[in-house]
């Protein structure tokens, strides 16, 4: 199995440092109050392109050879990876083709288009989009840069873990949104190699949680994909997963599942109490804390707010709803 380690992540940081923002980790008095332990928010939704995906995408693009850059890159995406890649290729004069399913919200699709990528809308799942990627690789010789299962992507996302430990040296618990596991694997590798006692917990939605189902089964499995407020967490982990499944199995202490109404409450709390606009995937950490879903929580806690690219009409509907919306 290919595991990414602290050195890979430090090398990634040296490579991407001039291209990304090192985001702040700020104290949340309201969440610290609710939880009874210090809670810090890693404001990764302020990353350029509105999500952490720019770190991995930039690291992967900068590792390509001149010849590979000349061919152009292709990826399947739930939106944010595509947006990050479309931004990152501009720095090296390459081109991106992004394949997305019909489940990807229109606001994300139009941002990818605006950045100048070639957009293909294919089928009703990430798996359908991935088939189109493979066709384009075979027919056009594009270089595939997957959203998570790639060493350079994991190492890039892991730079968040370095920044967390630097800002919060006594961190005991790190909460990370979890889909394909690039973010969780990278952050856990960085944090645990510097703070071996710290727990890293993945958070995801109840329906269609592919990594959770795969960890339970002991091998990558297929799950059905459903619409969710946490649309960035949709999609499978790939039946031939090479990097993120073994790393998540070795490094994650737990995976916690959130219902749609809990995720909505997380978005609402972020807005009303923290003054932050988050997409559903970015709010799962807050959702888990306010729903008291993490047993034996030990502080200080660092929580990754992973993205803010929510359709604003959806955001208005969620924050204006009183009480819990129907699940
Ligand atoms: C991609 C994404 C995630 C999940 O990251 P993985 O590396 O696939 O686990 C979480 N939050 C946001 C906002 C994302 O775009």
From TrEMBL:
Its cofactor is pyridoxal 5'-phosphate. CDD domains: Thr-dehyd. It comes from the Bacteria. GO terms for molecular function: threonine deaminase activity. Residues 18-307 form the Tryptophan synthase beta chain-like PALP domain. It comes from Bradyrhizobium brasilense. Its EC number is 4.3.1.19. InterPro entries: Ectoine_EutB (IPR014333), Ser/Thr_Dehydratase (IPR050147), Ser/Thr_deHydtase_PyrdxlP-BS (IPR000634), TrpB-like_PALP (IPR001926), TrpB-like_PALP_sf (IPR036052). This is Hydroxyectoine utilization dehydratase EutB. Gene3D superfamilies: 3.40.50.1100. PANTHER family: L-THREONINE DEHYDRATASE CATABOLIC TDCB, THREONINE DEHYDRATASE, MITOCHONDRIAL-RELATED. Keywords: Lyase, Pyridoxal phosphate.
């Amino acid at each position: 199995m290919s595991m990414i380690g602290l050195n890979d992540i430090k090398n990634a940081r040296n490579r991407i440092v001039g291209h990304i923002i090192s985001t702040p980790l700020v104290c949340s008095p309201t969440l610290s109050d609710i939880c009874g332990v210090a809670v810090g928010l890693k404001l990764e939704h302020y990353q350029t392109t509105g999500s952490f995906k720019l770190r991995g995408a930039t690291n992967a693009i900068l590792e390509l050879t001149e010849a590979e850059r000349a061919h152009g890159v292709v990826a399947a995406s739930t939106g944010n990876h595509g947006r990050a890649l479309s931004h990152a290729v501009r720095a090296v004069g390459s081109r991106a083709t992004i394949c997305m399913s019909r489940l990807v919200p229109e606001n994300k699709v139009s941002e990818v288009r605006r950045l100048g990528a070639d957009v293909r809308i294919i089928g009703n799942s990430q798996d359908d989009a991935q088939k189109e990627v493979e066709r384009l690789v075979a027919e056009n010789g594009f270089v595939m840069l997957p959203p998570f299962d790639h060493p350079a992507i994991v190492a890039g996302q892991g730079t968040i873990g370095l920044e967390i430990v630097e800002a919060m040296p006594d961190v005991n618990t790190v909460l990370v949104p979890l889909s394909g596991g690039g973010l969780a694997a990278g952050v856990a590798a960085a944090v645990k190699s510097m703070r071996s006692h710290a727990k890293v917990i993945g958070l995801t939605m109840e329906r269609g949680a592919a990594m959770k189902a795969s960890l339970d089964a002991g091998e990558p499995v297929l799950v059905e994909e459903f619409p969710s407020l946490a649309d960035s967490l949709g999609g499978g982990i790939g039946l031939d997963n090479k990097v993120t499944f073994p790393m998540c199995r070795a490094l994650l202490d737990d995976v916690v599942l959130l219902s749609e109404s809990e995720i909505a409450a997380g978005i609402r709390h972020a807005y009303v109490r923290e003054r932050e606009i988050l997409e559903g995937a970015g709010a799962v950490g807050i959702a888990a804390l306010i729903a008291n879903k993490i047993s034996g929580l030990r502080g200080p806690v660092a929580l990754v707010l992973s993205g803010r690219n929510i359709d604003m009409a959806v955001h208005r509907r969620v924050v204006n709803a009183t009480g819990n919306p129907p699940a």
